[in-house]
Design brief:
Length: about 110
């Protein structure tokens, strides 16, 4: 008599099929949380206006990084860094993860 594997026992008990590795999302598909606040969505808050509850809306352009951010979080983070430069309504700084240059509008990020 052969003992069943853990996965086979789960299939028998749950009466369902477990997903195969190809059915599971890869790391890049799951990486939708903000690289600064680590949340998937912004909190529901009147201060955030139309961005309240929004997901990430800015991605680092570096192909080796591609880290997603909420633009509100990135603007706040860039404001806290002394090397960040501003020209009119655009902030110029570096990605918190790969240090590649990033540029983001401050007006559209806030409202």
């Amino acid at each position: 008599m052969r003992d069943e594997t853990c996965a086979e026992n789960l299939v028998l008990i749950l009466e369902t099929q477990l997903p195969r590795p190809s059915d599971v999302l890869n790391y890049n598909d799951q990486q939708v949380e903000c690289g600064i606040c680590y949340a998937h969505c912004l909190p529901i808050d009147d201060e955030l206006g139309h961005r309240s509850g929004a997901g990430t809306d800015y991605t680092c352009d570096n192909l080796n990084c591609r880290r997603p951010f909420h633009s509100v979080c990135l603007v706040d983070w860039l404001h806290s860094i002394t090397t960040t430069r501003q020209s009119f309504n655009v902030l110029f700084g570096n990605c918190p993860y790969c240090s590649e240059p990033v540029a983001i509008k401050t007006i559209s990020a806030k409202y």
